[in-house]
Amino acid sequence: MLEQINSKVIFVDFFDTLVFRSTYPENTKKIWAKELNFINERLYELRKEIEKELCEENYKKNGSYEFKYRDMCSRLYAQFSSIISFEDFYRLAQKTELQVEKKVQYPNIALIKELKEYKNNNGAKIYCISDFYFDKNMMLNLVNFHSLDLILDDLFVSSEFMQTKHSGQLYQIVLKNINAKLSDVVMIGDNIYSDIAMANKNNIKTLHINSSKQYDYYEKMKQNEFLTFTQFENILHEIPEYKKFIFPEILLVLYLFVNQISNIVVKKNIRKIFFIAREGEFLKKIFDIYIKNSKYENIKSCYLCVSRKSTFMPSLTELKNETFERLFRQYNNMSIKEFLSNCSFTEKDITTVKSFFPKLNFNLKIDNFNNSIEFNTLKKSKNFQDLFNKINRECKSSLLTYLDGIGFLNNSSLLVDVGWKGTIQDNIACLLKDKRIEGAYLGLVDFGSASDNNQKLGILFNPSNCFNTKCKNSVFNESRCLYELFLEASHGSTIGYKKNSPIFEVNQEEEQNFNNYILPMQNEALVVWEKICKFLYPYYNQEKYLYDIISHKYFEFILNPSNKQIDFFASLKHYENFGEFGFSIFTNKKSSVVKNILNFLKYRKKYLSSAWWKAAKLKQDNLNFILYIYRCYRKYHFKKGNK
Questions:
Q1: Quick one: DSSP state of residue 69?
Q2: 32, 254, 505, 620: least buried by Cβ within 10 Å?
Q3: Rounded to an integer, what distance in angstroms lies between the CA atom of residue 227 and that of residue 465?
Q4: Are 412 and 537 found together in one domain?
Q5: Which of 509, 543, 577 is the last residue of a domain?
């Protein structure tokens, strides 16, 4: 595009030329007012009236409709009872305004790349000229945010001179300021009048940027203040990577989750969040992107390297008083070796225990383990009691040292994880006893050992609705393993601590699975996530509309996955590192359709309840007509259901 110009000096517009917005321009002021509504609930209306007054005053004086941001804030401040000083209000207003703009802006990458190449190849000077109410320092803040300082030689903004491109007078000021020849200058911009007609009127060559699609997008957004399904689809259409991504619907669910987490920490004035390993590794990444350049930027997110295994033994009492309730409520079919592994016994420790009981089979799976002869034999042994209690004390000490080192013990903080029962939180609560602990989870199927001092919140589903198909929440519980696969971590499970640092289990097969499948998917996901956050930011406080739309989209996905999604799912495996040990495989054994039908009719409940992903299993087994019936059944209850 720039090949057709032969200019030593380039003037370029900012909005809808160098950068676009994910919402229509006026909505940035509405969002700003919502962020500051604790000062006055009529901020937006008052600001709109004041801006109009200031523009009219300047037109009479200078012939341009423009105002200074500080003047607007000064008059606005005079309209309400001062709960803070003007300077504090002005700084807060500026900071919030910049945060909002950064959240909704994204660069015109193609144009910026061309400008950079043209500048490098031709030694041209590039000046940004913008009709806007920000002062130069505020505009430079945005310029630096987008790394545009690498290509711009200077910036001129109308509010600094109280003259605009729209009136044509700002061009004259800039030309005089930089002492450029008209024949050397070209103006690049989107606005037909301000950027093209008025530049031509000043004898400046022009190059028009066609932003008509962006204007149409703004108009569609203006039609309804509240998010509609059509608007949502239009937003997703603006993110080309969304449709290419294998599981975009899971990212939408995670958006609901992270959006609610941010609301919780603000309401409760929580300053530190601890994301629990291992699913918390990716959750922390997307949370950090979500809060970047927002009012939540003072919240510190930490990665808590704990696991059921690393917290279980420290949570226990001496052997004679221990019931192992939190282990046996979920796993009660295990070998002696698996029991000892769950209790953080090393291979060396297990060898020592074997020497105490040479006649016991340590690898034999035992049903109802807690009532078995073998388990009672272990507990009665003085040698085993002494070794167990020694390991217990060491594990308590190392975990407490680790928790103290990362600041968990001294903070009013929030635990965040993907969920299901919150067992790790229960273990930590048992260890710390009197410390109040709160946890927020994507979903819970059981509250575990929740109490007044050990509180848990299932954000998208909880035990009261997760299995009730008459509740919309149950759709998010349809295939929990998808969340676990999607959120797998780059490291093994935490098995203990040494010198205040976590020790990770090394599993080469699990690591290979992550590097080959999960990591590339997560890298793609982060690109899509950043854009989802930017485009949905104008609606972040419309939780009801977001929930209704995203739950509907997730319903359509989870009950009617594509073959590509099923194939990718079937290629994965998940390692279970507590209770039972080994990989879960998601590929179904190939059987004839007739055999699958007979199995379904004979073992209907077991057939579906044993499936990792019901719709995927029915499709893999070529039982599409049964899937259709199942989907209709779920859809009927979903439409009638309450959240």
A1: H
A2: 505
A3: 26
A4: yes
A5: 543
